[in-house]
Amino acid sequence: MEVTKKIAEYVVNTSLEDFPPEAITGAKAAIIDCIGCALAGSREPLADVLVDYLNDLGGNPTATVIGRGFKTNSPDAGLINGAMSHALDYDDITVITKTHPSAVLIPAALPMAEEVGSSGSDMLLAYLLGFEVACAVGDAINPLYYDDLGWHPTGPLGALGAAVASARLLGLDVEQTAMAISLGASQSAGLRQNFGTMTKPFHAGHACKSGITAAKLVRGGFTSGTDALEGRFGFMRAFSGGNEYDPEKAADSLGKRCFMVESGIEIKKYPCCGSAHLALDATSALLQRETLEAADIEKIDVTVNFDPPRSLIHSRPKEGLEGKFSMQYCLAAEILDRRIGMSTFTDEQVMRPEAQELIPKIEMKRTPGYEGHTSWAEPLNVVEIHLKDGRVLTEQAERDNVGALRGATFDAVRAKYLDCARLALTSDNANKTLQMLDNVEDLGPVGPLASLLGG
């Protein structure tokens, strides 16, 4: 089977009407959430470094840099907007691929739509197509890719999704779209070892830029193979460690399954690694019913649904970014502050003595009997707080696993957007952009929206 070409046919021939209303609603929520995260991320030091870098490069100003008040060329807009979307680790995740899909897809679709004058519905469709293809491929490769081989799947799968979204917005035909996907596949990258640094959000930005670059080069006559997903030396075999991958499954699932509904978009409550969120939910619930002080704690055992540490690689963090990828610090901060917010993850907060004293008392372990299984195979996380007086306080939390929009209501997504957007926009423009995004399927050319998002 010519898998990459069959996927390209799906991309070229699918319309917005082919998606159920629930998928449209989930995608709209994801777009709102992602752009809010990008606006908040535009205030981060990472954004300053990337702005300086882009100013050195120059380029044709066709696409808006979110929250920074200027335009650059569309590939570089994808780079910085994608990195800013993921800078706080506050952006959404999806279960099947264990990725942050929107931080790649929206920062690719928005600059391309702005450049070519596409409508809001065109951008929405491009997002959905990129999401579906990335999920179909991710679901058909070896689970070791996510859990053991060291790849950060947002980067490699994101490059495919961004290439798909960009190809659709540029109106590429089937042959060209297959080449764009193949060229995106050759740019796929992202190592988990860099978590806790600016490089993790760079993975999302690089994937955006890779997908946009691939589609634009192919439109200009650049050539690539048309079998880079399924080939003997292709993406799926390479990222699967050579075994347990099924290219035909990826191609056959498109149009028959709706991954937006099946896998959904999980909206984050906390600006840190999603692998810590269920434990934070459990700890928060426990603190609401118990009076507890850090000085009373002997130790904390956290039973997680993955083989530790997975993405939580910093057991003894010393910096704010490392704290985002530390179960130990996240739970310590929740216990000390009774909340986790954007101000939680500064160097000063991580290094405060009371946090550093509590951190070594917290240990992660896998649910007995699930060791070596795929991540998230079991539904629960359990937190056990052992007190010095001999009591053990226990609470558990379960992942929401039904529907396109998970972890938050649409109204909660809107509230999160305004909270984030007001860091970079006036209150009036925050409200205006939210109204436009709320009705994105009825929006004309996205240029006016992008200009307001520039800040």
How does this structure look, described?
With 455 residues, the protein is α/β, with parallel strands linked by helices. The chain has 2 domains: 3-269 and 407-453, 2-methylcitrate dehydratase PrpD; 274-398, 60s Ribosomal Protein L30, Chain: A, CATH 3.30.1330. Helices cover 51% and strands 8% of the residues. It has 21 helices and 8 strands. The chain has helices at residues 3-13, 21-41, 45-57, 74-86, 102-116, 120-139, 144-147, 154-170, 174-185, 199-219, 235-239, 247-253, 259-262, 277-289, 320-323, 327-337, 347-351, 353-358, 410-421, 427-438, 447-453, and strands spanning 63-65, 70-72, 265-266, 297-304, 362-366, 380-387, 392-398, 405-406. It has a 4-stranded mixed β-sheet with strand order 5-4-6-7. It has a two-stranded antiparallel sheet with strand order 1-2. Strands 3-8 form a two-stranded parallel ribbon. A hairpin with a 4-residue loop joins strand 6 and strand 7 (392-398). The N and C termini lie far apart (48 Å).
